Amino acid sequence: MSNSSATTAAFRLSEKLPFPLKRLADLAYNYWWCWTSDRIALFQTIDPQEWERCGHNPVATIESASYERLTQLAEDPFYLKQISALAREFDTYMSQQDTWVSRVAPQVSQDNPIAYFCAEFGIHESLPVYSGGLGILAGDHLKSSSDLGVPMVGIGLLYRQGYFRQRLNRQGWQEDYYLDNPFDKMPLELIKNEQGEPLTIHLEIRQRQVKVQVWRVQVGRVTLYLLDSDRNDNDPIDRWLTGHLYGGNLETRIAQEVVLGVGGVRALDALGIQPSVYHLNEGHAAFCTLEIARLEIERTGKSFYDIEGKVRNSCVFTTHTPVPAGHDVFSPDLIDSFFAHYWPQLRLSREQFLALGARRLGDPWEPFSMTVLALRMCRAANGVSELHGQVSRKMWTILYPQRSEDKVPIGYITNGVHAPTWTAPLLADLYNQYLGADWKNRAVDPKMWAKIDEIPDEELWSRHIILKERLVAYTRYKVKKAREQRGEDHRLIQASDSLLDTNVLTIGFARRFSPYKRGDLILRDAQRALKIFGNAQRPLQIIFAGKAHPADEEGKRIIQRLMEWCHNSGIINRVAFIEDYDIYTGQKLVQGVDVWLNNPRRPLEASGTSGQKVCFNGGINCSVLDGWWCEGYQAGPDGKGTNGWAIGEDAHTSDQELQDRIDSQSLYQLLEEEIVPLYYDQDAQGVPHHWVKMMKASIKTNAPLFNTDRMIADYVTQVYVPEISKTVEPILAKVLL
Known about the structure:
One of its GO terms (molecular function) is pyridoxal phosphate binding. It catalyses: [(1->4)-alpha-D-glucosyl](n) + phosphate = [(1->4)-alpha-D-glucosyl](n-1) + alpha-D-glucose 1-phosphate. Belongs to the glycogen phosphorylase family. The structure is a single chain. By secondary structure, the chain is of the alpha/beta class. It is built from 31 helices and 20 strands.
């Protein structure tokens, strides 16, 4: 491989730029820029309209700019100072040798990094290869690994059309459509070999030879490699293997997982990367364990069972959901068609191969489970919250018949979020003033977060109101645009300009519209809901966003019911649905709402992270006690929440109707008796001091725990390099804080 390939794309872009602006190219090709404090103005200033049109893509924005416009910026002293300061900060960041991990776990080196496999990565909206929580978590995982200096490479797929785009028709029904991603104008680069040809790996998929090329994305100090089968020399069917994220049938799914798992290991081998640990983030990547084994058998000539322990010792696994649909299983016939050529290379019989993914051994009709394969072939496994760890141990006890449920070897590391990405710059500036300019590097320090109490109520509230105004303006823009595209009545389009009110208590609900997440729970008693939202003295408003999977008819019906509710004459200005949910919309929501609503059926929310993002922005959670909220929620002596609210009883029942009834009644009662009165208890200047007290509690109790710096430290000390766990506590206190 050419040593200069890492900078080729940035160099090519820099040639378009006047000399004073050339460092913009380096920044554009490294997503580090998207979690800096100056991220809003850096590229948007070039051409705000183009920035919006291209989905906040820095490369496309620069490419489209006229040379005249660029020379104008090149003589703007303020803009040049901004670029110069950012470039210095970037260079310091990228060249830093003395990092947290270099002191805590120096044995993890760049020569043998952690390889992090995931089917989706949510880095930024300009790289649309994500669908939701799993991808956002993976993106934050890479960002904090970069911040802490963890040697890591990401492995994923580059989808030609990504996840589907969403629009709603005039009946409120979700319509799915796709757009091609312009790879040549995105912040990524096709890796080439010494001959200048794309670096390719070869896979056999259903008796066809498939060539897969590799793209590189820089995420701070971490490199993300994305695999792509869309090549002219592939069969048209195979070109679409990396066409859509979570699209197609089971054959497409297993083919994609072959590309991710088997192809990912081969790509690392072709790149000369020898990982010390392979981290399977969800079961989609479990086939990578088989390819690691195949390479070891090829190298040593030993049998599969001779090298199985070595393979297991190099692999770790994170499971992300107790929902059955999240655990891929394939029929023996489908496994035959994809792996009949492969198991002889492992020196296994068909029965031995199928047994690796079988929950129950000896049943010829037992499907092949990717989660079972991962659990069998990894030395460590974890859920993503304390409760999810318990649920996972119960789910998979069948694999460990000699162990009691509490001894099933599945632990937990609770998810977190990347604070610099999700904290609004306006609040980050406030934290700079009161917590210290290095607050982002001390996100796990509870003593630092305790200083939140020093911020005057009026100052925190005024900044929150500004962010809320921004959310209201953004929601109006998105709703108006959607109504125009649907060709709705002119009066309804114009009414978008008066949608929502900054002075009204605002709830946010944004997530995948899967039935178990109960997106319409708040409508269960429609009359009571109308009474609460339509209260003239103390009104309430709510903003919804999210997609239903294209095959999820019930999820689409939930969205349709919400859209019908949006047009109810009694609350027409109090309810909004933002279409085509993405990272940018997510940021605006978590930064601007007063209350974040989360009401899944227990115990199906493995962790959830959107509510954690809200905490960094002073929002308050109102959630069932599931996932991370079981660990985050705190109640006072009177049983009421001090940093948020808990919906329903902390009880699990298989009676869904009963749980829905209990939880909806609890939600209405919380709104009527606690949340609404607390918000509208305001002084003469409109500051709700008791509410702000809860905002501060939300920040200082949750921020130090539910961030990805803490999460990555847990992975390093408990999973990646567990031998240091006995000595790392005092080191953590000294250097991570």
